[in-house]
Design brief:
binds flavin-adenine dinucleotide; 3 domains; 29% helix; 5-stranded parallel sheet; alpha+beta; 22 strands; Alpha-Beta Plaits
């Protein structure tokens, strides 16, 4: 007999198969010998009470031998000589998952990517961290795998109505991700493992007869009779296909400018902006797991995380993309703009915990700040201009070479320049600086109030040992590229498909991958 059982176990028992068997036999009320085996289906951590417990959902085999769990394997077709072709601009999660889905159905994808492959890209990241010199085409946002490649690889999303999350996780597993990602409530892959998975996806695309062109940047569309025939790239090459998927991410400001200059409809889009916060991981562990700061957490527990939100003067201040055991990284794409973000290795074993802490920005906020007659309140690039101005200020305040301006959290709230900063993870270096001169006043004041309120919710969070680093400004796209709600193409072109985070239809790796699949489905329905 097979039976689904829910258990709540202490951490040391939840990771021990013999203890799990014992608990299953207690729960079912049968001798332990009757439990022939089990599969772990779901695992989540409950740290709300005094003692931390794991919730496990298990499939137990009672008096019958355990069977392996079947995982659906996706099969890919040979598309080398396919009659239908689609150009995909951008090899981020949206572009890659669109390509795989098209291949499954028999359409040939031609991927055009401005950045380098994952291996070469890693060298550019090392150079940026060591020397402060950026490659504007190959960095934390641009290159194979997109913005998520050198990230924490968190794979959870709230947009479960928009697609099949389990299918996306299964595909990640098919290309080499650990099976645990389909078990954990908050799965993550880690920066060290993602490049191998992305490489395996590319090898599948090429092996199936698709094309992948690195270091080819879209600079123009080839248009005939209100139809996009192809794209031109900066090397002078032209590519032609039946359809074009535009999956260029939230940082491709030149693509937004290209669309605007060509009178292709785009809209400004509210996004969130603020700072990245870093605490010692041991402090976050002690707060969340109710243990002592100077003692290591229980070895059976993962590094603790948090998710915080507070309303300040009618606007939300909220944590974003928390990276336990992580590193703060320079996620800029241009020479004179400073953007920070965070990543973690799969073990999340760095001594620091970082998280974005951001405030929503709307058109009226950006309009009041930008103060330039070129930008009316309904200008499609208003929020992008706002973002750019703040990133440029942060770059100058940091002192150049991607050093970042920072303050201790307590000094941030007192508006004093810190005389020193604690040890931290940010490799290019931090310099104490006046963040009030970098951030708009309404952002600064809300963050200040937010930090103090979070200190009440999480005792110890508001501390001089925490650092506030500017600026977290690429939380989502400041521009939306609209599409027809039923056919999903751009309203002006029946074969141009805006896709993923850059178009404003995703926020994160999984939702971008799901949007890629959704667009591929629309093309498949139309063409096959
Ligand atoms: C450091 C960091 C950490 C992150 N951590 C996480 C996380 O843990 N979990 C999570 O869910 N999300 C995370 N994100 C966000 C996530 O990466 C994005 O939401 C996701 O990658 C968006 O996917 P996308 O395919 O829409 O766009 P992108 O991933 O941005 O991909 C767009 C691609 O288009 C290419 N491109 C741009 N312009 C052109 C052009 N003109 N010609 C050709 N190619 C072009 C770019 O080089 C890029 O490869 C993180 C982001 C960063 C930067």
């Amino acid at each position: 007999m097979q039976k689904k059982i829910q258990l709540r176990l202490k951490p040391e028992h939840a990771s021990d198969p013999q203890s799990i068997k014992q608990s299953l036999s207690d729960s079912i009320g049968c001798p332990i010998d009757y439990i022939k085996g089990f599969h772990l289906l779901k695992r989540s951590l409950d740290a709300r009470g005094k003692s931390v417990l794991f919730n496990l959902s298990l499939l137990a085999y009672i008096n019958e031998p355990i069977q392996p769990l079947e995982r659906q394997k996706i099969l890919f077709r040979d598309v080398q000589n396919a009659s239908k072709k689609t150009i995909i601009v951008g090899a981020g999660p949206a572009g890659l998952f669109a390509a795989l889905k098209l291949i499954e159905a028999g359409i040939k994808p031609i991927i055009i990517e401005r950045g380098k492959d994952v291996r070469k890209r890693r060298r550019d990241l090392a150079m940026l961290n060591k020397t402060g010199i950026i490659n504007e085409e190959s960095n934390y946002c641009f290159g194979e795998g997109g913005a998520g490649t050198y990230s924490d690889g968190k794979l959870y999303t709230r947009s479960n109505k928009r697609g099949d999350i389990q299918r996306i996780l299964n595909l990640f597993i098919q290309f080499g991700a650990p099976e645990d990602i389909s078990i954990d409530a908050h799965p993550h892959i880690g920066t060290n493992k993602l490049p191998g998975i992305i490489t395996a996806m590319r090898e599948q695309i090429l092996g199936s007869g698709g094309e992948v062109h690195f270091e080819e940047k879209l600079i123009d569309f080839i248009v005939e009779n209100r139809s996009i025939k192809g794209v031109k790239t900066h090397t002078g090459s032209s590519f032609f296909a039946d359809d074009v998927i535009l999956a260029t991410g939230h940082s491709a400001s030149d693509v937004f400018e290209l669309l605007h200059q060509n009178n292709i409809l785009i809209e400004s889009k509210p996004f969130a902006l603020g700072v990245r916060i870093e605490h010692p991981q041991s402090l976050i562990d002690s707060i969340q797991y109710h243990c002592r700061f100077d003692k290591a957490r229980d070895i059976h527990l993962p590094p603790a995380s948090y998710s915080l939100v507070e309303q300040v003067d009618g606007k939300g201040v909220f944590s974003f993309c928390m990276c336990p055991g992580g590193i703060i990284a320079p996620a800029s794409t241009r020479k004179n703009e400073l953007v920070v973000n965070g990543w973690s290795p799969s073990k999340r074993n760095n001594p620091y915990a970082n998280s974005g802490m951001v405030v929503s920005i709307e058109q009226k906020d950006a309009f009041a700040y930008v103060n330039d007659p070129k930008f009316s309140i309904d200008h499609p690039l208003l929020l992008m201009e706002f973002q750019k101005q703040i990133e440029e200020k942060a770059f100058v305040a940091g002192g150049g070479l991607f050093q970042a301006p920072a303050l201790r959290m307590t000094d941030f709230c007192k508006k004093t320049i810190s005389s020193s900063l604690p040890d931290n993870s940010y490799l290019p270096g931090l310099n104490p600086a006046d963040l009030n001169a970098v951030l708009p006043t309404f952002v600064y004041e809300r963050l200040s109030s937010g930090f103090k309120a979070f200190g009440k919710k999480m005792k110890g969070y508001y501390t001089e040992d925490a650092i506030v680093v500017a600026t977290e400004s690429r939380t989502s796209s400041p521009v939306k590229i609209p599409r027809d709600p039923s056919t999903l193409n751009h309203p002006q072109f029946e074969n141009l498909y805006p896709c993923g985070e850059g178009a404003g239809f995703a926020g994160g790796i999984v939702s971008a991958a799901m949007d890629g699949e959704r667009i591929a489905d629309a093309i498949i329905q139309k063409r096959l």
